[in-house]
Amino acid sequence: MYIGGTIQGEFLIPNQAVIPCKEKQSFVPLTHQCFPYGRSGHIYRQKGLNWQWSGTRDEFVTVSISDTVIELHDHRSNSRRVLPAPVLRRLQINTGKGNDVIHVKTREPLQQPFAVNIDAHGANKFIVGTSDPMVSLQVTHEPENLLVLPDDRAATYERYEPGIRRWNEANRCRDSWFKSIRRRLVYFFGRDLNFRLTPILTEKMKRFLAWLPGHTVPVAPPQNTYFTTPQHIAELNSMAHPGDILLRYQAGYPFDRYFVGVWQHAGFYLRRGRVIDAMGNGIYLRSMEAFAEADGLVLLRMSTATAGQLHQALAYAFEQIGKWYNVDFDDNISEQYCSGLIINAFKFAGILDAGYRHGESIHPDDLLQLPGLHLVWTNRPDLLKSSCKNALMELVCSN
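-> structure tokens emitted (399 positions)
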């Protein structure tokens, strides 16, 4: 999608005359009221501002409205365009044929009404509105392929969580044969190859022998063999805030120390003992009890982030529920892996710069290097100390 820079094509002006444009140009001054119209573009007419794009690529865009300007942000290419708000305070959006995610929000409370009309033709659409009462949002689309959240409040995301999950599951891309093999290998080494099963197998053997004649083997009820106890979980829940980062360690995975690090998994704390994380079966909302089946936990907090930024980060994480786990461990936001989900959420919220470690795979241990991070709680200070590899990590670990 093109929303900035230069473009070749024709320029349309309010009187419908056409001016040929042979050389590359950027947006011309507002006094001419001319804007490019090609593969995608903006047209100023008396009706207001029209924004449209074509093609089958899945788009992820945010439209930020104020009384004076409109900002268009393409999150996939991280390109932005700021345009003067139309006089009649009306924005028409015509989408392409991809599975698009569109956010409509206000930069500050509006003083005058503003109308946003979205013609969401094509494939499935996920649209998030704003709680500003001055914004009127109207969407035209087939109901069975459309998911619209009326606003971006935390309670709204929680209420629509089943719909978000179904929408993302329905829009999962089909794996190629090579990627399906890669996914199975990641599952095997990251989940199935667990030598912690030995005590469980021993207990099952005892139960089997108890059925044999002449054998009186005492059978103990299954117990939780993890280091983390219910007391740890209760303490953690009492200290955690929405948007905090959780790191987890589980014994029994000998290869993780060499390929992943000390901490093998990461998640976002939501509230009321719930966590959003990306595991082998995808991105889902889980209980703290399920996440805390571990031999070590760390609770971290971004002290430099505002409450609004943390809300946006959690909103982004909510919108990923139901997507595939990213076995390529890259910047593809159509799928997410555990620590990549946290990094992408912080980038979306403006907590991290959009270019932060671009193109790199980020392990849970690497989250200890995030600027502005500080330690809140851990039940394994020994593991935390062993994972501190540089001065910045030492600063977090020593707090």
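Confidence is low (pLDDT under 50) at residues 1-47.
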